[in-house]
Design brief:
By secondary structure, the protein is an alpha+beta fold. It has a single domain (2-145), classed as Sufe protein. Chain: A. The protein contains four helices and four strands; from the N terminus they run H-E-E-E-H-H-H-E. Strands 3-2-1-4 form a four-stranded mixed beta sheet, covered by helices on one side. A hairpin with a 4-residue loop joins strand 1 (31-37) and strand 2 (42-51). Helix 1 (7-18) crosses helix 2 (66-79). Bound molecules: zinc ion (ZN). Zinc ion binds next to helix 2.
């Protein structure tokens, strides 16, 4: 499934999927959300501690394919210290990047997912944790599923 992915990007994704960062539960989370991608069987739960609308801490747990795990891992690494508005703006950029392959500005480590656009079935794996984090910030109590939204 990685045939067309740049080797370096592939290594980063495999590293994060094997050794996910922030892979634990936060006991004092102020927001949580679950995401489910039935097409692949990915499940992810995001835990956030929000203070004054800024993410003080963020972690996740779950099971799924390498792409969904790596996406959640890099997401948690990237979002500490970001505001709710930052997260929404970044969601739009990541969504555009994984569907078109074009990164809008400096995406940092998130750029490793640009190659995912060549694998339409994997786009939902990559974007799943992003749906979950937006849902957590919005305070949506329902689990999100990739099948109820457009990508
Ligand atoms: Zn998946």
């Amino acid at each position: 499934m990685f045939d067309d992915l740049n080797d370096l990007y592939q290594q980063v994704i495999l590293d994060h999927s094997k050794c996910p960062r922030n892979f634990h539960k936060l006991d004092h989370a102020t927001c949580t959300a679950q995401g489910h991608n039935p097409l692949c069987g990915d499940n992810v739960t995001l835990y956030l501690i929000m203070e004054n609308n800024v993410i003080k801490d963020i972690s996740f747990q779950g099971s799924g394919c390498a792409i969904s795990k790596a996406s959640a891992s890099i997401l948690t690494d990237s979002l500490k210290g970001k505001s709710a508005a930052d997260v929404t703006a970044l969601f739009d950029k990541v969504h555009a990047m994984v569907t078109t392959g074009k990164a809008g500005g400096d995406m940092g480590k998130l750029a490793v997912f640009a190659g995912v656009h060549k694998f339409p079935a994997r786009v939902k794996c990559a974007i799943l944790p992003w749906h979950a984090v937006v849902s957590a910030i919005d305070g949506n109590p329902e689990p999100v599923t990739t099948e109820s939204q457009n990508g």
